[in-house]
Design brief:
alpha/beta; Rossmann fold; 5-stranded parallel sheet; 5 helices; 5 strands; about 45% helix
């Protein structure tokens, strides 16, 4: 069995956070939650995450600023920003994806999370076997 993908969900609305956590855990994800940017940074610094899902409207530090801090720690982790007040393209953001609340169904959110957590950014694992195949050729050439 594959290890569970680990997701950090950040929202100051505890009811929304609880619903998201339940929805994701019933689909096999391991979910950690935070209600503020500072809590999220602390969690993100202490654990490995496959994806971050954060709301834009957080107190003291908005979701965009939070993503900026998290990208400094681990830029390869995909991050999704959600908002009910801002439309995609209206505001510059550092997230890998932007979802307007109310414009996408829970199934759309789950699918976006599934796709983005499956293809964690960074070096592809497929590059390593190509290097391994080149080594025997190089060794054979030296032996000749």
């Amino acid at each position: 069995m594959r290890p569970k993908k680990t997701i950090l969900c950040v929202d100051d609305n505890e009811q929304t956070l609880s619903v998201r956590k339940f929805m994701l855990e019933t689909r096999g994800y391991r979910v950690y939650t935070a209600i503020s940017g500072q809590d999220a940074i602390h969690l993100f610094s202490s654990k490995q995450f496959d994806l971050v899902l954060t709301d834009l409207g957080l107190p003291q530090m908005d979701g965009n600023a939070l993503i900026g801090h998290l990208k400094e720690i681990s830029p390869e982790v995909p991050m999704i920003l959600t908002s009910d007040t801002v439309r995609a393209g209206e505001r510059a953001h550092r997230a890998d994806a932007f979802l307007a609340k109310g414009c996408c169904s829970p199934a759309d959110l789950i699918e976006r999370i599934r796709v983005m957590s499956a293809r964690k950014r960074g070096p592809r694992k497929a590059v390593q076997p190509a290097v391994a195949h080149a080594l025997p050729d190089a060794l054979t050439a030296r032996a000749s």
